[in-house]
Specification:
Keywords: Membrane, Transmembrane, Transmembrane helix. It is found in: Membrane. With 237 residues, this protein is mainly α. The chain has six helices and two strands. The chain folds into two domains: 80 residues; 112 residues, no CATH class. Helix content is 64%, strand content 5%. A two-stranded antiparallel sheet has the order 1-2. Helix 1 packs antiparallel against helix 2, helix 3 packs antiparallel against helix 4 and helix 5 packs antiparallel against helix 6. The longest helix has 37 residues.
Length: 237
């Protein structure tokens, strides 16, 4: 939660623009802050989910209701993230557009598996796929940060240029663009191999050490948790 609040503050008030996100004349959002508000809105939706998840965990008397509402809020957060990435104010063409396109695939998988968690709260596979996809999404965002916003990490034949009030990666010709997009696809395919491979390997190692001795329990206080409600627990509770 603290990281979400810090991220929102960083996007809106700690930017390199050194000015206010709202126009001093009419109070409207300045055009160079549109993408900052989009990023902040994504963080806000996950912050709301995290807040209510904690509240439900502490005060809800029904584990079934807790599971369904928390998953619903998470699904809404992923849906908003998908919508804002799909309709992003930044460039949807070229290298950045390809990164965003592949990111949308990961977000959609997270959204679908989160909704499936409502109907199948005890499904290990649903929870495992969602968890792996969230890790995948985080690593992909880090990769995007290096390639798109760090000088010197652009693909060969491409460079970061200032267009208007935003820095974008532009390629010198069609051949360089095709090579850059192909590299993005290769990066995604390598992540697709490595991330699930690491996750399954890590699971096998943990299973070898702990076997079936691990029991999943709710974070709620025991007095708020009826014993017959254990069957409704989500695997990730």
């Amino acid at each position: 939660m603290a990281s979400g609040i810090f991220f929102i503050a960083m996007e809106l008030f700690m930017t390199p623009h050194h000015d206010h996100p709202f126009d001093s004349h009419d109070g409207t959002i300045q055009s160079n802050y549109l993408h900052n508000f989009e990023h902040s809105s994504m963080a806000l939706s996950f912050l709301i989910y995290a807040t209510f998840a904690i509240i439900l965990d502490r005060f809800s008397s029904s584990t079934k209701v807790q599971n369904e509402l928390s998953h619903l809020l998470a699904a809404i957060a992923f849906a908003q993230q998908f919508l804002l990435i799909h309709l992003h104010s930044r460039d949807h063409m070229g290298v950045e557009g390809q990164y965003h396109y592949l990111l949308q695939i990961l977000i959609m998988i997270c959204f679908v598996t989160t909704l499936m968690g409502i109907g199948f709260p005890m499904s290990f596979l649903v929870c495992f796929v969602r968890s792996v996809c969230i890790i995948f999404q985080g690593l992909w965002l880090i990769c995007m940060g290096f390639v798109l916003f760090t000088p010197g990490y652009e693909p060969k034949g491409c460079s970061t240029k200032l267009e208007g009030d935003q820095f974008v990666v532009r390629c010198s010709d069609e051949k360089a663009l095709h090579r850059a997009v192909s590299l993005v696809n290769l990066q995604f395919s390598w992540f697709l191999i490595c991330v699930p491979g690491f996750a399954v390997s890590f699971y096998l190692i943990m299973a070898r050490f702990y076997g079936e001795k691990v029991e999943y329990v709710s974070l709620m206080k025991e007095e708020h948790c009826p014993e017959d409600g254990l069957k409704n627990f989500d695997v990730e509770s």
